[in-house]
C-alpha cells in the first residue's frame, strides 16, 4: 500500500468522507471488473460494487493495514458477490449461464460449442462465465487479477491446498473449453 | 513409448503425478525433485507435454484478460454513499 493510499485510509478511519471517496475513485473500476466476472451480470455487479463500498465505509475501522487495502476490499466484494448469487438476485442464477455451467469433471465442449467463439479471448470469457462459482473465483483472483496464491486463498477463506485444487480444476476446465483456439502445438 | 514399455509402473505413477500437479509446476510451486519428475515425464509422454503446454497458454491468455474498465463506476458508488447517509 502506497504512502498516499495509507494516508487516505487513515483519514477515512477518522471519519473523513472525502478521503474515502478518493479511495472509491482509486478502486471502484477495478473492483467492478472483478465483481462483474464473479456476478456475470452488469446490474448485479453494480449493486455488489456499491454494497461492497458501503460495507467498507461502515467497517473501515476494521482494516488493520496488515494487507493491501484493495485485498481487503476484494474480500468484502467476493463475499458480497457470493451472498448476491445465493439470493439469486441476478439473472445468471436462474437463466442461461446456470444451464450451461461447466463442471470441471466434464470432458469439455464439442465442436458446435467451439464454433460459437471467434477467438481465444471470447472463448476464455465464455469458459470463465460457465464455471461453477466455487471454481470461478479462484481462477479470476489468481490468474486474471494476479493475486498470489496465499492472498487469494486467504481472502476466500480457504486453505492453500483446497484453493490450489480448485484452481487446478478450474484451469483444466477452461483449457478444455479453449483448446481449439490455442496456438497449434509442435508435434513431438 | 519405449520408456512406457520398459518402466510401465513408473511411467503411470509419473503420469498421474504430472496430471495432478501441472498447475503447481507452472506456478513454480513444486520442489526441485517434483520439477525434475514432471520434466522427465513430459519428455517421454506426448499427452502430458501437450497438457503442460496448453495449460501454459491458457494461463497466459487468462492473464491477458485483465483490463482497466471505465471510471463511471465510482460516480455511482459515491452517489449511493451520499444517498445512504
Keywords summarizing the entry:
heterodimer; A: 188 residues; mainly alpha; Rna Polymerase Sigma Factor, Chain: A; Arc Repressor Mutant, subunit A; 2 domains; 68% helix; elongated; B: 85 residues; 5 helices; rod-shaped
* Structural class determined from secondary elements of chain A: mainly alpha
Number of strands of chain A: 0
Q: What does the largest sheet of chain B look like?
A: none
**SSE string of chain B:** HHHHH
CATH architecture tag of the largest domain in chain A:
Orthogonal Bundle
**Radius of gyration from the alpha-carbon trace of chain A, in angstroms:** 18 Å
Q: How many beta-strand runs of chain B? A: 0
> How many distinct helices of chain B?
5
The CATH class of the largest domain in chain A turns out to be Mainly Alpha
Unreliable segments of chain B (pLDDT under 50, ≥5 consecutive)? none
User: Can you summarize the main beta sheet of chain A?
Assistant: none
Q: Tell me, briefly, the overall form of chain A.
A: elongated
Q: Which topology of the largest domain in chain A does CATH recognise?
A: Rna Polymerase Sigma Factor, Chain: A
Low-pLDDT segments of chain A: 89-100
Give the tally of structural domains of chain B: 1
Explain what you see.
The complex is a heterodimer of chains A (188) and B (85). Chain A is mainly alpha-helical and 188 residues long. Chain A folds into 2 domains: 89 residues, Orthogonal Bundle (Rna Polymerase Sigma Factor, Chain: A), CATH 1.10.1740; 82 residues, Arc Repressor Mutant, subunit A (Orthogonal Bundle), CATH 1.10.10. Helices cover 68% and strands 0% of the residues of chain A. Chain A is built from 10 helices and no strands. Chain A is elongated. The relative contact order of chain A is 0.11. About 6% of the residues of chain A have low confidence. Chain B is mainly alpha-helical and 85 residues long. Chain B has one domain. Helices cover 80% and strands 0% of the residues of chain B. Chain B has 5 helices and no strands. Chain B is rod-shaped. The model of chain B has no long low-confidence stretch (mean pLDDT 90). Chains A and B meet through α2, α3, α7, α8 and α10 of A and α2, α4 and α5 of B.
